[in-house]
Description:
By secondary structure, the chain is mostly helical. The protein is about 70% helix and about 0% strand.
Amino acid sequence: MVDHVFTILSIALIIPISLFLGVMYSFLIRKLSARFQWRVGPIVRMYGDLAPVIGSTRIWQPLYDILKLFGKDALIPSTAHKRLFTWSPYLSLFFSFAAVLFIPFPGLPLLSGTPYSLIIASYLLIASILFTILGPAASGSPWGAIGARREVELFLVAELSFVASLFVVAVTKGTLVISELAGFVGSIPMMLVTALAGITMFAAMLGKLHIKPFDMPEAECEIVAGPYTEYSGKLLGTYFLAKVFVLYNMVALFIAVFLPPLSSSVLWLPLYVVAALVLIFLLAVVHVLNPRYTIAKALMWYTKIIVPLVIVGFIAAFFLRVVA
């Protein structure tokens, strides 16, 4: 009974925590990217003469952008498949939030002890991305269709890297339960294989989060807003909110799988925050240093570099399990 109550309380707590951290991660990527390019970006402390008019800070700018959209009407194109177009943002948000419940946070194991929680979390994240493809494809817009097609092509290689990286760790550590990863102590070869999987996981994050050079589905100068061209108001805000949760999930899942002790106890919370900030910093650096790839170059990069690394990781993981 006590365990059930604690789980319910943990789920209630993780809702504001995940939203807060997702917004903060979005803010930091925007702020760091701006500073690296000698721009100001969202202002942490507003100028004194403007503070009475527009507030004292813009740390919450990603959330302000979403709330502004929720205050506007959503326009549905006459050429769209209305049900799929309308429901896709909500389903994307549902799956991205559901994944939060299976990824532990320091002091909050949530549902990470559920059998096959690693598979459940990964599939929920895949489903969230899938509905960012289906909705735009149903919009009837050529720009939405082009963006959705690019999203599909990127989806195939990025999700392959994402799922394969997770299962290399699962094979190496012999479990599909996220909460059990922290209790596993491996040999140096196993740690090296896990590190290799971490590299391919980071590469998958670039594609899933549309970090440059893999932001071609939303290339504004080429295809307006890509998949989101025909979306507006609450529907567009819902998609952006889903992206906030996906960002939180990717960071939390990376730490839970590749730095599992940091998610196991509230005592590790300071190091968890440091690890998250390092990941966000690296994402911002990659985003700033790279121009946008063409979709063909992106596919080539994944298939020629990341896929071979994944294959090497799988072979090494199976070999180590057999030897062990």
